[in-house]
Amino acid sequence: MDWMSLSPEEWTAVRLSLKVAVVATLFSLPMGIAVAMVLARGRFWGLSLLNGLVLLPLILPPVVTGYILLILFGRRGPIGSFLADHFGIVFSFRWTGAALACAVMAFPLLVRAIRLSIEAVDFKLEEAAGTLGANRAWIFLTVTLPLIVPGIIAGMILCFAKAMGEFGATITFVSNIPGETQTLPSAIYTFTQVPGGDAGALRLTLVSVAISMLALIASEVMARFANRRLDVE
Amino acid sequence: MTLAVDIKHTLGKFWLDARFATEGGLTALFGRSGSGKSSIINVIAGLIRPEAGRVAIDEEALLDTARGIFVPPHKRRLGYVFQEGRLFPHLTVRQNLLYGRWFAPPAQRRDDLGHVVELLGLGATLERRPGRLSGGEKQRVAIGRALLANPRLLLMDEPLASLDEARKAEILPYIERLRDEARVPIVYVSHSVAEVIRLASTVVLLSEGHVAAVGPTAEVMRRIDLPPFAGQPDAGAVIEATVAAHDDRFDLTELTSRAGVWRLPLLGARVGERLRLHVHARDVMLATTRPTDVSALNVMQGVVAEVSAGGGATVDIRLDCNGEALTARLTRYSAERLRLAPGVPVFALIKTVALSGPARGGRNAETGDA
């Protein structure tokens, strides 16, 4: 059974992947809710442009997305240099860059799930809350947000799973540095490129499958719990 | 409390141009579907912003397009009971009831959850979620929720329309208690003659986006010439009567009115109680001499006041029975044969059984306040 135990390097890749996916999911959530709200409820010129922009990473080849990130957020890129100079935030060849790449790639899935659940909220309930004295912020916090919790959970799970599996944009943007940017998929890819790496690739594949299954089961359980609270039969 | 409304607004092909004022009590906005009643109540609530208009409560403008005033719905302090209840599914009944209290300034908070729960009979439901309530319970919670926000005015948009007859009968007394005990001014949208006659103190009659008449309930509801009634089966008269006696032997109740004495199938009302009868025009028969040997128990003496010139086979005839109005629907043939014209003395016959049953407005049209 010796082949089943992970080497320290493999553990590092698993831990890094989890960290990258969790950070990517948590940081994109507030913006995901805001953008979903705008897309579901907004009425202004440029709405379809915003929609296209959000969906773009889903359609573009991941390598292209990664390259665009490299141009924009690299050391010399307009956004990257600004953030580095003023806030000391560096993305290129750091695990934060991997998290950014994963967040951008997973964002369309997150927004789509939340947007659908916002569109399913009966606008009339929000009107009713308004007649009872709640302003727009309170209506959102006390009516809309609790009602879209199942959608938010679904979106977060999708986002997390996508982030765990992101490969093309990550490797293009931040390369494949063990201990810094080598996530699970990159590590598996590396194993398949060297002689005798099959066992390692298989071990990490099993880990990957297990994490994905756990995430799916967690989402099922949470969605059921949320639905029971809403008395949806 | 005075509510003044003046609205001009287009909704698709529909042109709403309504103006009325009302003082306290229960004001019914009454008309057929598509007459603009719901739009008016939504303008009062601030859910529709009309092209032009003014809505004011006691001189405080909630909306005045001429002066650029629009108070957003959450600052109007109006309670709104929607047709479909619109309870928050993620909150318990108790949380639903207390939702509006949260947002009220502390000085205006009502601390009478217990009183409202008792008034609306909601004690057993407090910890349940709306998904587990019956239609009637949902609507009572919706009324309580609006009430506990301590509104200056309660708006009700066909709150009974989605309920069956039994559930309606369950809720009507609670609305009467709001009107009489809680003394909340109410604006009540309805297309049901029976509800309006039972509940309203003032009626605003709407037809195709315009106000056809405004006034005390009995006065407005007997206008045979007005569009919602002309040619419709609901046309009739509202008689204000007092319970005089019960006859247990024949199971009849005797009522007195200015028009005369009425005998109805036994009512559950106390002697001395005042109530309203809705007498359908199609249930009234006319004779030019006092009929003898007829089975009809109710014979009222009066004179023809108005003959409505409608097309087709029927005419509506308004009678003046000692100051009380009564409407009869006859064939044009009979009206001509009897030479009915204003000033002609007649006797109106109404079968007692026509005055019973909830659909006919007999028992259903009774009210404790007239």
Give the H and E element order of chain B.
EEEHEEEEHHHEHEHEEHEEEEEEEEHE
Per CATH, what is the topology of the largest domain in chain B? Rossmann fold
Mean pLDDT of chain A: 89
User: What's the overall geometry of chain A?
Assistant: globular
| Helix amount of chain B | 10-25%
Hey, roughly how much beta strand do the residues of chain B contain?
A: 35-45%
Total strands of chain A: 0
Number of helices of chain A: 11
What summary fits the major beta sheet of chain A?
A: none
Strand content of chain A: under 5%
In total, the number of domains of chain A comes to 1
Number of strands of chain B: 20
CA radius of gyration of chain B: 22 Å
CATH architecture of the largest domain in chain B: 3-Layer(aba) Sandwich
CATH class placement of the largest domain in chain B:
Alpha Beta
CATH superfamily caption of the largest domain in chain B: P-loop containing nucleotide triphosphate hydrolases
Q: So what's the oligomer here?
A: heterodimer
The largest interface is: A-B, 22 and 31 residues
Description:
The complex is a heterodimer of chains A (233) and B (370). Chain A has one domain: Orthogonal Bundle (MetI-like fold). Helices cover 78% and strands 0% of the residues of chain A. Chain A is built from eleven helices and no strands. The longest helix of chain A is centred in the first third of the chain and has 34 residues. The mean pLDDT of chain A is 89. Chain B folds into two domains: 220 residues, P-loop containing nucleotide triphosphate hydrolases (Rossmann fold, 3-Layer(aba) Sandwich), CATH 3.40.50.300; 125 residues, RNA polymerase II/Efflux pump adaptor protein, barrel-sandwich hybrid domain (OB fold (Dihydrolipoamide Acetyltransferase, E2P), Beta Barrel). Helices cover 21% and strands 36% of the residues of chain B. In chain B, strands 7-8-9-3-10-11 form a six-stranded mixed sheet, sandwiched between helices. A five-stranded antiparallel sheet of chain B has the order 2-1-4-5-6, covered by helices on one side. In chain B, a hairpin with a 2-residue loop joins strand 1 and strand 2. In chain B, helix 2 packs parallel to helix 4 and helix 4 runs parallel beside helix 5. Chain B is globular, with a radius of gyration of 22 Å. The relative contact order of chain B is 0.12. Chains A and B meet through helix 6 and helix 7 of A and strand 7 and helix 2 of B.
